[in-house]
Specification:
By secondary structure, the chain is α/β, with parallel strands linked by helices. It is built from 12 helices and 19 strands. The radius of gyration is 22 Å and the shape is globular. Bound molecules: nicotinamide-adenine-dinucleotide. The site of nicotinamide-adenine-dinucleotide has 30 residues, from helix 5 and helix 6. Nicotinamide-adenine-dinucleotide binds next to helix 5 and helix 6.
Length: 389
Amino acid sequence: MKIAVAREVEFYERRVALIPDMVCRLTQAGLEVLVESQAGAGSFFSDAEYEAAGATIVADAHELWGSADILLKVSPPTEREDGQLESDWLKEGAILISFLNPLGMPIGIERLAQRRVTAFSMELIPRTSRAQSMDALSSQASVAGYQAVLLGAAALPRFLPMLTTAAGTIRPAKVFVMGAGVAGLQAIATARRIGAVVEAFDIRPAVKEEVQSLGAKFVEVPLEEETVAAGGYARELSEDAKERSRQVVAEHVAQADIVITTAQVPGRKAPLLVTEEMVASMKPGSVIVDLAADQGGNCACTEPGRDVVKHGVTLIGLINLPSATPVHASQMYSKNITTLLNHFVKEGQAQLNFEDDILSSICVTHQGEIRNARVQLALEALREPSAMG
Ligand code: NAD
């Protein structure tokens, strides 16, 4: 069984799917590991380290993809410099494990089905305790939450902690975190460690205790509707509830030095939490870090992929924040991937038991079929634009 690690070619992607430490574990279990030359360069793992861990370095990308029984990646397959599609290089029956953005890029999933590839989408790992150590959305979200605070702090023209010095006393900065899921909680913890005063808001009331246990104040917005969907995720709010929560959070945004927004609703555009009016109400020099930038943004003024200044406020819309901490993001992703491999590769063979809830959740294509109903709906919607209204 050949496990192949591809080089990431998207210009913003510095992570690698498997680090040398994890290669060791797979080779010790009798698996053959192939690594595309320079695959670890963006995260400072050299070809020599991979070789020392027992991997074979393959210079030719086409050869690597074509010989893989299981191909490991971070970002969805893409087009190479010469215009060739990476997914077309996979052999029939190969297994691809990667973030695949299945709802955002259903055409890519259809292509994998046509190639008769078995595709496992890391976004779809179930949020259960059994699958926790494979949960790459969580591991990467926590890196993003940490990065968001550092970016915000670096852009802020003030200190974050309280300082008592001979040159006077500095008041601590106020950080307001909107969306207290995995990324938000990590942002709260990081901002608290640096010494900021932190407030947080989420529509799921269950997070109140977690927020408070990290030393932050929870901003309550009474909403008279169900805000939690299956799997512990948020539901999209009614227009009325959105408006009500905006009124409550507006004053907290106005007082904050840094606002970090992380709110997402799976399969939907990110909810708009910070209006342009709210941005204009902030002190000049304040900062908004919008972690939902690549899903349309939580702030009306965000420009995805760019930092801009509007109404005197710096808006950070950087996408793929985990890639900015590539060493540990890759280490955590590798651990998620290796745990998943251990889950279904037994005695050198892939055991594709789709009765298993983890495999059935993550498998989006198998034997020429698209196995995920939401991806099928997304494809149908693309084909019938009129049906979208
Ligand atoms: P996410 O990235 O989908 O969303 C981030 C946060 O935004 C969530 O807390 C959500 O409630 C919040 N949000 C959505 N709409 C909002 C709005 N209009 N205003 C304010 N906040 C809004 O979520 P996530 O971080 O991936 O995880 C969500 C939850 O999933 C977790 O908190 C947890 O309950 C569950 N989870 C479980 C496991 C596990 O059991 N293994 C692992 C990870 C997450």
